[in-house]
Batch of 2 targets.
Target 1
Amino acid sequence: MNSKKKAKKIKLFPIFNGLLFFMICLFIIVPLWKVFVDSIDLQTSYGMRLWPKEFGLVGYKVILTYESLYKPFLISCITTIAGTFLGLTLSTLGAYVLIQYEMPGRNIFSFLLLFTMIFEGGMVPSFLVMSKLGLTDTLFAVILPLGINVYNLVLMRNFFEGIPKGLFEAASIDGCSPMGTFFKIVLPLSKAALASIGLMFSVTFWNDYTNFKIYIQKSSLYNFQQKLRNLIMDGDTPNTSEHISQNTMFSAAVMVAILPFMIIYPFCQKYFVKGVNIGAIKE
Amino acid sequence: MSIKRGQKVPGSKAPLSLRIYNHRWFYVMFAPVLVFIALFNYLPMYFIKYAFYDYKMAQEPVFVGLKHFEKLLKKQDFIRAFVNTFELSIVKLLLNTFMAVIISLLLNEIKNLQAKKAVQTLIYLPHFMSWVVTASVFRLILSPSNEGLVNSFLVNLGVINKDQMIYFLAEEKWWRPVYYIVNIWKDTGWGTIIYLATLSGISPDLYEAAQIDGANRWNQMLFITLPSLANTIIVVLILNLAKIMNLFESVFVMYNSAVYKTSDVIQTFVYRQTFGGGIPNYGFTTAVGLMKSVVGCILVLVCNYASKKVRGRGIV
């Protein structure tokens, strides 16, 4: 009797678990799915419909031909590419120097970096620095401050520490300069780390809203996030002759903001996870 | 490590000047990093001095001592923002951690690897969407009209009438629950990564031994899995507690003037006072930010101490 009961219990659990995960997945996907469906549905009064009643891409047409969205999209691309490049440069350089245990002053450098994680000037002093440097309302203000990310730098350093010391010694015996070692040995060996940390930087820059909100007042320098926000929250809507509801238009705008990422996401997901795990090994 | 042929290997015994000379290229390589943190991290710290000044952009700063601090400690809005910051951050942190642990435990029980991978891919996804996009998605589905999914659903269930649509993001009693749920939606999946790594690191021998001793699955979870996870959970909580004062963007994109009472946090308060129109007194808002930074600093140091006690290694 007892053993029979046990056998039944073990069989029941996977079913229960499967159902539960089905529901968790629904919880994640339904909000996104609903927005997607609304973006291709031309009938108003959407309600609970999870399938379009009258299929049409007019929403996308309105959004993609809305001229004041081109430039924000371009600005987002520029800041993402420049920022990712800058972020990777600074974190690899910093990480490479921080693994030179014999270098005088290494501890001071580490401390200077880590102290920024403990204490910060805050939003207003940072804004004052930017405005005194004359960088507000330029793209430098949104690219430069995010270029140093101490957490990413530490991840990079942890990765570099895994490179066998013998390689550095061999390189220097063969007459390789520190810079040569950096470019010819360290970087080629760290492709996985570069990919994962580069991806993290690019997501940060692509999604940046706060820095734009603080440092950029000129609407000609808005990025896509800022524009999307204005569109949906402040009703800064495009004039159009097409008869579509606001909901369709907004949904299409949200999809334009996330679709590119959702398409590449399944391919680069493993790099993100790898990046987190590089941190987890030493953390 | 530039060692010229025939030269002594520069260890800690070599004279300092020689060691510095040998590492000269490394200093050059580190210079850009130093310039960046000097400009964007340390220069703002110097500007904290304005917390003790009256400072409006066009005028010369006037030294006023502790005036701003006296003012803000009497200011009801500030106290409210301060309390809200703690409440929102801590409840969010506990809820997210709890959900992440539960989901990791259950995910670990899925034996079909492909299904597991698929679920993981899906639940990590919202983490990469910006807060603006997240807020937009939820604004659309929570919309208080018959276009909103949630309100239509409630009407169809008969919970509410058509004329009593709920303004989820503009009612004080609803804003916080919605905020917590959106946070769970966005970050719980991502939070499971670290627990899953711990779970996959538990030796299978332990489970085998427990089985021989007659432990069923529930007992195995209670006496093997959970204790192994406990350390990771504590570390994650400590690391995140240090950051609770930094709440900004998630609140900023979801709140509005109707719900300041339950949603305003220090950073949004500073933002509104500084950039919300009118001539800002940078001195006052710097003082508010300084209070936040000091409390944040104390939290980091306390958490660092706790982390050293728990895992023998600090945060910073």
Note: Chain A has two domains: 14-55, 63-280.
Target 2
Amino acid sequence: MSKNALRLSVGLAAIIATTPAFAQTEIAWWHAMDAELGQRLEAIATGFNESQDEFVVVPSYKGTYPETLTAAIAAFRANEQPAIVQVFEVGTGTMMAAKGAVNPVYSLMTDNGEAWDPSGFLAPVTGYYSDTDGNILSMPFNSSTPIMYYNKDVFEKAGLDPETPPKTWAELETMSRQIMESGAAPCGFTTGWVSWVQLENLSAIHDQPYGTLENGFGGLGTEFTFNGEVQVKHWENLKKWADEGLFQYGGPVGGADAPPKFYAQECAIYMNSSASRAGVINNAKDFEVGFAPLPYYDDVIAEPKNSIIGGATLWALNGKDPEVYKGVAQFFTYLSSPEVQAGWHQATGYLPITNAAYDLGVEQGYYEANPGSDIAINQITRGTPTANSKGVRFGNLTQARTVVDEEFEALLAGSKTAQEALDSAVERGNQILRDFEAANQ
Amino acid sequence: MQTKRTIFPNKLLPYALLAPQLAVTLIFFIWPAAQAVKSSFEREDPFGFRTTFIWFENYARLFAEAGYVNSLSKTAVFAVSVTLLSMTLSLILAVAVNRVLRSNRAYTTLLVWPYAVAPVVVGILWWFMFNPTIGIAPYVLRSMGIAWNHRVDGNQAMIFVVIAASWKQISYNFLFFVAGLQSVPQSLTEAAAIDGAGPFKRFWTIVFPLLSPTTFFLLIVNINYAMFDTFGLIDATTSGGPNQATNILVYKVYADGFLGLNIGSSAAQSVVLMLIVIVLTAVQFRFIERRVQY
């Protein structure tokens, strides 16, 4: 902590030194965006700082999403919290339960006289971050949804049409087999985030419940129910495909081994967040990348439902001066302006979180010039969201995801069947939910 | 004992002299340890708004949890393997270097290098070499007919972290063994040689017993290393996976406390870990030290 405090104060000193005339209010913003995303984020802060001279937003990188959340919580306990912290969607349940720690964005905006129209935001995004009364608690910033990336060159080599990616899992299986057997690539497909893509999103797309009480939106007394027939069938398939070599496992949590498999042209298809887009394009030097929605089982559902979001939002933490919150509110207004949002969305692959940002992109001709860049937004807004496809919101979901990863590994190692692995994940996950309930009552 | 006691005429001076050390111990050891014991009896939400005193529930839950029992056994396997492997190899290397008359300093320097590398860096190094996708080792192993994928195979993952953890510790053990070997009087081995004892006989009956204080010291250091210092290495290589196959106690404390934000359970685990180390060290001093000849 002291190292960060030091870094912060050095940054602050630099800012004070370069701005002689004004006593500016400093707003600390902790985030989890590194590399290209981090530079983009800092550019947004700089843009805001230059647009006015009352406030200075100071972004600091705090590591991965879980590390940033942990750092913010530790800082809050020590009364050293930043004004704004970026929390991934998995941490939403934890943040919502911490009522005393959070300055909810809907009241923050009205208290500080900022124009704030929640209906301008994409419905799946606002729905996810609202409490049971429909009030948005955190500022949507970088939302994403998983899509499918595929290697057009390998498709062509295997004798497949590079413009026709697989729509269903059955097609994906046949195409993967053809790719392997023709020798175009040694593996059909891989995936990042098994828990998020191959279970949470799988459930949403097929309109299967992930948990009781509207997937946890309805309260703390929820239980997991993701060991249904469809999920079991899918995991059985994944195990079968892994044994055949059609599918290669990319590791737990985010699946760090998955992207290299795709970049090295070992696997022809790769499923991961739409926010990987910038990275995928940068790394796919020797081949052309295609984009497609996630596959579905057409014998389960004829019209697949919308996928669910990932990514993060910005939470304002309590315990700062009113002056600071005024700045936070102004910064949030700046952040959600169509220009800033469209720029961020187009550079990174995150969803445009407001309708205006999307419209601006259409107007600029961005989606026509960049085929595939609207796959994510079309996928997340298709159909009418049901209670099962609205999203998943559970306390301690990070821990529950770890359990899902572990059980998936047990399945791949052959020590459990798909049914056993999912049953055991549900049982262990429910214990984690009970812990959360007990700690937050 | 009585003769060694010095009586200070000044009543305060001895306390004043002890004060800095006592302060350090209190602030950096006793106080955090007491906090951990306190937290282990509580259930708290991550932000610390609601704290409930729940007696021994954290402990009861811990021992009822399959993952914890698994973690205990993995720690035992890991600590014993790392200690045995690194001590055996470093003893062999030390004996070999000790026999080299010229340029043994050069060998010593080369062998000590790995110790200068931070555990996380060691972890990343091995992560690269053994990465199932891009690593060189799985590639070589595959050509030998071994399918290496420690991302899925728990036993392979355990072998992998044992090798990586031992690799680093060999340097440290080596240094102590070389120093120990050099303090063995040449005259003893020469006398035994004259009496007709072969090199192995000389080693086992003369050199090894004289090395026993070093060996005993290294035994304790290595077990503590395997149980505590390997945290960064585990984090960088396997993160405790696959399916908790390498989830040793110290990593589980971190994962549950810092990633899972379950402070009560994490505190209970660290208290148990503290007790295990106290008992282990006590047992070592009580029973093994008797065999040591200083």
Note: The interface with chain B takes residues 66, 70, 73, 76-77, 94, 97-98, 100-101, 249, 251-253, 257, 260-261, 264, 266, 396, 398-399, 402, 405-407, 409-410, 412-413, 415, 435, 438-441 of chain A (CB under 8 Å).
